[in-house]
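TA notes, week 10

Several of you asked for a full example with nothing omitted. So below is the full record: structure tokens for the whole chain, then the designed sequence directly under it. When grading your own attempts, check the secondary structure regions first.
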């Protein structure tokens, strides 16, 4: 849904700002769904689709870092938080214009805020790890 929302912004309006706004709205809509009494997911997968459309090169690095952290630590939440934090840094390093960097900062903040309970559990050592072969 993140990828499609950015694509719609590009087709319907065609400006980078419209694409970025559509991406942010997709992340917010996923995280605070009106259909679920303003509850929802943490926005990570939706955010990945958004950055794939907005900034393809950083997306590959962000996904690789997420995958490496999850593979080593078995904490999906830690990988998600670190990956979200990397987005604006990589946007800046790759020379993207200010609206893209600001998008990265805002999206990272949204995702980190949505992970507040996970951060507490990580700090307390009580966060769940993924296990091979279990659902």
């Amino acid at each position: 849904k993140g990828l499609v929302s950015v694509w719609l912004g590009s087709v319907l309006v065609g400006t980078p700002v419209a694409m970025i706004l559509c991406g942010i709205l997709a992340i917010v809509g996923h995280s605070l769904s009106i259909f679920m009494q303003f509850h929802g997911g943490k926005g990570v997968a939706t955010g990945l689709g958004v950055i794939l459309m907005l900034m393809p090169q950083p997306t590959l690095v962000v996904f690789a870092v997420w995958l490496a952290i999850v593979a080593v630590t078995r904490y999906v939440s830690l990988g998600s938080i670190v990956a979200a934090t990397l987005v604006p840094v990589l946007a800046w390093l790759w020379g993207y214009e200010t609206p893209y960097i600001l998008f990265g900062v805002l999206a990272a903040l949204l995702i980190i805020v949505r992970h507040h309970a996970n951060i507490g559990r990580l700090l307390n050592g009580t966060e769940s790890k993924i296990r091979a072969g279990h659902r």
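Helices lie at 2-12, 16-31, 44-54, 56-73, 76-93, 98-114, 116-124. Use that as a sanity check on your answer.
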